[in-house]
User: Fold GTPase Era from Albidovulum denitrificans.
Amino acid sequence: MTTRAGFVALIGEPNAGKSTLLNRMVGAKVSIVTHKVQTTRARIRGIAMEGEAQIVFVDTPGLFRPRRRLDRAMVKAAWGGAADADIVVLLIEAHRGLTEGVQAIVDRVAAELPKGKPVALAINKIDRVKAEALLKLTEEMNAAYPFAKTFMISAERGHGVGDLKAWLGAELPEGTWFYPEDQIADLPLRMIAAEVTREKLTLRLHEELPYQLTVETERWEEKKDGSARIDQIVYVARAGHKGIVLGHKGETIKAVGQAARAELMEFLDRPVHLFLQVKVRENWQEERERYSEMGLEFKDGD
Ligand SMILES: Nc1nc2c(ncn2[C@@H]2O[C@H](COP(=O)(O)OP(=O)(O)OP(=O)(O)O)[C@@H](O)[C@H]2O)c(=O)[nH]1
Assistant:
């Protein structure tokens, strides 16, 4: 049997319904922490199986409205994420139509994405408009950009979502799955847990380091007493950064751990034992394979 696997980047204006759509396609509330838009970097938002195809959804946060230097770097990285994805889906809101924001995204898509990259259009919230308006918008959008396909959906009610998912599955390149099917179930939790810690680090360290560190959940153990033991590693790019992350007498990492643990307990609704370790991984930025796995690649100078 032919298996398929690949990355899909979901892009669109804030509020377009990306989280709602993802939750529907992935079938779990995986995007719980993602509304804190500006603290996130492109990463896996969820994984869905569609027949023999494994669809890995990547997030491209901070795609628009760069304000500070850091944000500009993030926008660049986000477009890198979209460019690396096998398929891009632009999600727009039916009742708002071709807004200035949507036009700006379309312009960027045309300018930044490699030619031939399939970009599908998903017109969301169709429950809010009449059929004629929808047809007009479809024409208008397809005049603005040669979309590979147009879908009319309601992420909230589920209309058309199955068609979109089936199309994505069929369009992905042939290849082996990135994740064993039985691991997909707890993968989002591991990623959410890592994201929570990364967010606390970002809050604590302000703009000093966040770009150069990453958090990975190494181990997740369900204890008999109903609690969860979570082991995470914070990777920093340079030996000098380790001290900053640890803080004086380990105060910084301790505060980060406490804050992350509190949020995880609330999210998981049970006791959590969180263990954080800080390690130096000098070639962190060069580990391209890792990034391409996330649908994101850092280039020199970013
Ligand atoms: N009427 C209607 N509302 C929808 C539909 N899909 C999503 N929404 C609503 O649109 C709002 C935004 O949805 P989200 O999924 O949070 O949007 P998002 O694109 O992830 O937003 P950001 O995280 O800000 O980028 C929510 O209030 C949803 O309930 C739909 O099909 N119909």
Q: What stands out?
A: The longest strand covers residues 213-222. Residues 187-205 form the longest helix (19 residues). Residues 29-42, 288-302 have pLDDT under 50 and may be disordered.
